[in-house]
Amino acid sequence: AITNHMPTAELQALDSAHHMHPFTTGDELTAKGARVITRANGVYLTDSEGVEILDGMAGLWCVNIGYGRDELAEVAARQMRELPYYNTFFQTTHVPAIALANKIAELAPGDLNHVFFASGGSEANDTNIRMVRTYWAAKGKPDKNILISRHNAYHGSSIGSGSLGGMSGMHAQGGLPIPDIHHINQPDWWAEGGDMTPEEFGLARARELEQAILDLGEDRVAAFIAEPVQGAGGVIVAPDSYWPEIQRICDKYEILLIVDEVICGFGRTGNWFGSQTLNIRPDIMTIAKGLSSGYQPIGGSVVSDEVAKTIDGLEFNHGYTYSGHPVASAVALENLRILEEEGIVDRVREETAPYLAEKWHGLADHPLVGETQIVGMMASLALTPDKASRAKFASDAGTVGLICRERCFANNLIMRHVGDRMVISPPLVLSLAEVDVLIERARRALDECHAQLKEQGLMKAAS
Ligand code: PLP
Prior knowledge:
By secondary structure, this protein is of the alpha/beta class.
């Protein structure tokens, strides 16, 4: 049998032999060997060599309550014994799905009172594409079927959600995007703001939505979708002027606003939802990840009374075998209980996030660091050879980011790189002492990265 007790090299060889990894060049991984994670507790992972690593990414932006919560394991075991599976198609239901939908409706802002379940964010965004088109068709406007999204957005990896996203590397493979998806530019002031102030730039980028609606035709555009804070795109925080203008435009032209809360939801930004932190009024929210803190695969679309009322008037020919899966629902419900009863979201807002923000912005004095951005417990920093001119490195985008990520790894900290931007999204239960550890390791990694870049002659700016 293959077990945790095998030597790392053997596990790595078996991994390469039969396991294809997402977003990975298999041959490179085979040459290097994947890091094998064996256990986790709190905010720390342990690898097959027994090394403890501070997980600055909460897995994949999802383990909001941290690792090792027995309550969730118990709820899962109990639910598996009682009712391991039943579906919610046609005219059946079960208590875990009922209870979870009710809880989400209670937590969600405004009149977002109805949940369509999926197994994750990609599936939920596929639901959204079909739901908004079905909604407008039911309203007698079948041509109002274009969804507008943003370049460099991430909304998932299925054909539909990958089309909705704006990742060029994904669009280059497999025949994406599907028809009637349109992309506008992202509000990334550091990289693309030129001579504009952040406020001017935020307005200009929001007004691209209005221009797109006018170009495509108001009667053709069904919805606009965006993450409150772009996560996988590099934790890009829009200037303050951006979201109020987006909201104004969606209201004016009767465009449904889909806010993808897959990362921002469930406490990540210091409120239950990023929409609350940024004062956005969505018609539909995509949820996943923090909904179960990653302990079970579950996601969904949370929709307004108005959208639900319209969809409920017809048979919506859509659904997944695991929509509202009882074990996943029960675990998610327990996760929400813990987040709520332990005051984890409030503590993020009032204590941990302000402390992390102070320390994170403190990294801006490092010679490699340009802008630092943070909202709640998601943060980024831009690596640059010259902060005054917001210069990019002459090397291919991502070369320097990868070196920095490797130095983080070597210092037992997981940070991700997106191009030459470093991002974190740690578990929400991070203590203040653990914030200090994270920052200390990040600074050490930046120092080592800087030294290596100088040695390799990579500190040059692009001309
Ligand atoms: N939407 C956003 C904003 C995401 O960050 C992700 C995943 O990272 C997804 C959707 C896709 O979710 P999943 O990987 O659960 O399908």
